[in-house]
Amino acid sequence: DAGVTQSPTHLIKTRGQQVTLRCSPKSGHDTVSWYQQALGQGPQFIFQYYEEEERQRGNFPDRFSGHQFPNYSSELNVNALLLGDSALYLCASSSGQGNTIYFGEGSWLTVV
Amino acid sequence: GENVEQHPSTLSVQEGDSAVIKCTYSDSASNYFPWYKQELGKGPQLIIDIRSNVGEKKDQRIAVTLNKTAKHFSLHITETQPEDSAVYFCAAFRMDSSYKLIFGSGTRLLVRP
């Protein structure tokens, strides 16, 4: 049973560029959340997708957007990258509301 | 707003000793409290969780206790081993009305051989 898978694992982008990160949830899970983890800090909630809709959003600007596909996989898009967007981006999946939440290994984004 | 405080930020113990990490949450409606272990360069791994209808849960060398009145919960690791060295995060969640985990700031645990 594959867990939460994310791609790419590492990437380097230039300030002002755009990036797309991808996530496949754990088998049987229909809910995907994205978190940003800066170095030395705990993960911060970006948003959650359920039934292909954004269900809740954290305190992140509109430069951060996402999408969920019919097969429950998800993408995180960040436009107009800033140096401060450099972080580990984590995808988490769960089944329904209130069930155990599992994380992927993350995508390391470096903005130069 | 919602907040989880975690202490200590770093903890160094001798192999075989016990380690305790404490968290306090602000949202009294929180009812699910997972603990994650994060090794260097990896994503958070769920190690144990507790729901608000129980006060304690054990899984081999790991236990979690919850005091809803004081809004405290703690992670206890007994007979620590070097492979327990990692960063541990507590989190709080409202199972019925929210969609996000609120994380503590993390505890870096070092188990000395």
Question: Can you tell me about this structure?
Answer:
The complex is a heterodimer of chains A (112) and B (113). By secondary structure, chain A is mostly beta strands. Chain A has strands at residues 5-7, 10-13, 19-24, 31-37, 44-50, 53-57, 64-68, 74-78, 87-94, 102-103, 107-111. With 113 residues, chain B is mostly beta strands. The mean pLDDT of chain B is 94. Chain A binds chain B through residues 4, 6, 33, 35, 40-45, 48, 50, 55-56, 58, 88, 90, 92, 97-98, 100-106, and chain B through 6, 32, 34, 36, 42-46, 49, 89, 91, 93, 95-96, 98-106.
Question: Can you give keywords for this protein?
Answer:
heterodimer, A: about 110 residues, mainly beta, seven-stranded mixed sheet, four-stranded antiparallel sheet, about 0% helix, globular, B: about 110 residues, six-stranded mixed sheet, five-stranded antiparallel sheet
Give a concise summary.
The complex is a heterodimer of chains A (about 110) and B (about 110). With about 110 residues, chain A is mainly beta.
